Structures are given as C-alpha cells and as structure tokens.
Amino acid sequence: MTRRFGSLASLLSILAACAGASTDGGAREGARRAAPPADGSRPLARPGRDAPPFTVRDLDGREVGLAPGRVNLVFFWATWSEPDKKAVPRLQEIFLRHGPSGLALLGLSVDDEPRDVAAFVRTYGGSYPVAWDQERRVAELYAVRCEPTYFVIDRRGVVRFEHCGYREGEAERIEAEVVELLREPAP
Asked: Minimal CA–CA distance to 97: which of 182, 32, 9, 27?
C-alpha cells in the first residue's frame, strides 16, 4: 500500500510540474511548457528580481527593449495560441488607457517563423511594439515557462508580477497590477 501511495505522490508531482505555475498558484488555460535556459542557469526574470535587459528589432525594424523609467509589460505570445487571440485585444485596451500615464508594452512572438506575426497583429490589434523573438533568445533569458507569459516590471526595472497562461479575468488582474505600479512614485 505504501508503494502505491508513493507512486501516486510522484505522479502528482510530475503532473503539477508539467501543468505550469503562475504567481497565484494555478495552471492556466492554453499554457504550453517552454524549455529551461539552455545553459542550465536558474531563471532570471522572477518577481523581486531585476528584469534582464534586452534589445530586439520590432516588425518595423526599430530596435526596442525595456523602457527605462516606465512601467513595462512584456508579453510573450504565439500566433497559434487561441488564448492569445483573446489576450492581444485586451492588452491593446490596457495600453491605450495607460500608455499616456507611463505604461510601455512590448509583445514578443515566440513563433518558429516570423511570416504570420504581422498578419496576426493586423487581425487582433497591437499599436504597441511587437517583435519576433528569433530563436527564442529573450524567452530563454526570461526563462519563459509557457505561452502566453506576461511580466509586469516596475519603473525601477524590477519584475513585480508574472503570469503564466491566460484565463478569464487575466487582463483585469494585469491591469490592476499596472495601475498599482503607475501609482508608485517614479525613482
């Protein structure tokens, strides 16, 4: 009997690890596990840590990255993700409401090929910078564990919130976090 429960406990641990985690402890709809950093290092971008700096070229060829002194929302997504089709228009609304107050939003596509990214943005919205994360370089730097993943970063460049996956009410939680950080005094 003990062996049976031990095996059950092991199975539950494996299932929990595969389901993905979020800062509120729940697995998220549409979440897909991503590989850990190739060099075996521990995840860099987690709540309470400085956000790793990066630059990429957006769809218009401009170099973009974290916006110093602003609240940054970095969003890793994919064109094949059904939850992202719901999330992108909601993020656009958040950006339009809070961009003038200091929100910088950057969407990073983790698709294998860039060909569908621009069409996706035209269909689902996105007046904020969008880039293709070629070879998943930034996703690896941020140790992204699933798609979609959101990092909410304060004005000092510290990751304050992380969301893995998307479900109903996610946009409202993210917006509340953005508002909270926008109310904090600038450094």
From this structure: 182
The C-alpha atoms of residue 27 and residue 164 are separated, in whole angstroms, by: 8
pLDDT at position 117 is 93
Say whether domain 2-183 belongs to CATH 3.40.30.10: yes
Count Cβ neighbours within 10 Å for each residue of 50-69 and write b for 16 or more, e otherwise: ebeebebebbeeeebbbbee
**Phi/psi of residue 184, each to 5°?**
-70, 145
Q: Estimate to the nearest angstrom the gap between the alpha carbon of 104 and the chain centroid.
A: 14
Contact 143, 45 (CB under 8 A): yes
Q: How far from 16 is each of 13, 76, 177, CA to CA, in Å?
A: 5, 22, 26
Residue closest to 108 by CA, chosen among 82, 144, 83: 144
DSSP β-bridge partners for residue 162: 151
pTM, entire model: 0.77
pLDDT per position as a tens digit, 49-84: 999 999 999 999 999 999 999 999 999 999 999 999
**Any idea where the domains of the chain sit in the sequence?**
2-183
- Token pair 């095996």 is found at 7
- Please give the structure tokens belonging to residue 108: 């990073």
| DSSP 8-state symbol, 53 | P
Token representation of residue 146 = 């699933």
CB 126 within 8 A of CB 92: yes
Report the Cα–Cα distance between both ends of the chain, in Å, rounded: 59
